Amino acid sequence: MIRKKMGVKFFYYGLIGGLVIIANAFAATSLTQTNLSSPGNCPTLKCVRHHIDVIDDRIVKLLALRLAYVKRAGELKQGKVPLHDQRREKQVLWHVAHAATQSGFPATIALAVFKTIIKQSIAYERQFYSTVSQ
User: Fold this and answer.
1) CA torsion angle 31 16 113 127 (round to 10)
2) Is the separation of the CB atoms in 71 and 125 below 8 Å?
3) Mean pLDDT for all residues in the chain
4) For residue range 38-93, what is the model confidence (pLDDT) as tens digits?
5) pTM over 0.70
6) 18 lies in which domain range?
C-alpha cells in the first residue's frame, strides 16, 4: 500500500516539474529544428508574429499532453490519495520560479501562468473524477 501511494505521489509530483523540463528541452532543441531564429533576427513585425504563433502552437500541444497526464493521475489517484496536494503545489511553484530565473524569465510571470495551469488541471481532474466514479 505504501509503495502504491508513493508511486502515485511520485507520478503526480513529476507531472508539472516534468512539464518544465520538457518545455525547456523542447525550447532548446526545437528552435533550431524549425528554423526559429533569435527574436533579434526577425526584420519585420510579421516575422516576429509568425514566430510567436509557432511557439504558441507548441505551448498548446504541451498543455494538451500535460492534460493527458492529469487525466492519468486522476485514474491512479481514485480512492487512494487526495486530489489536491498543497505541499506538492508549493514544491512545483518553487521549481517553476527557479527554472524561470535560470532561464532569464521573470519568475512572477511564470508563477502566474503555472498557478492558472494548476488551478485548471485540478478543475479538469475533478470533472474526470465525477465522470469515472459514476
Assistant:
1) 120
2) yes
3) 78
4) 999 999 999 999 999 999 999 999 999 999 998 898 888 887 888 888 988 999 99
5) no
6) 2-132
Q: How many domains, in total, are found in the chain?
A: 1
CA 47 to chain centroid: 27
**Does residue 1 carry a pLDDT above 80?**
no
Q: Is the dihedral of CA 78, 70, 82, 24 positive or negative?
A: positive
- Return the pLDDT at 111: 98
Scored b (16 or more CB within 10 A) or e, 62-83 reads eeeebbebbeebbeebeeeeee
Q: What is the CATH number of the domain that holds 26?
A: 1.20.59.10
Residue 37 — left, alpha, or beta (φ > 0 → left; ψ -120 to 50 → alpha)?
beta
36/98 Cα distance (integer angstroms): 25
Q: Would you call 85 helix, strand, or coil by DSSP?
A: coil
- CB-based contacts of 124: which residues, under 8 Å, 6+ apart? 67, 70, 71
The closest alpha carbon to 26, from 1, 50, 59, belongs to: 59
Q: If you search the block for the grid coordinates 509503495, which residue do you land on?
A: 3
pLDDT at 9: 35
The cell numbers describing 34, all together, are 524549425
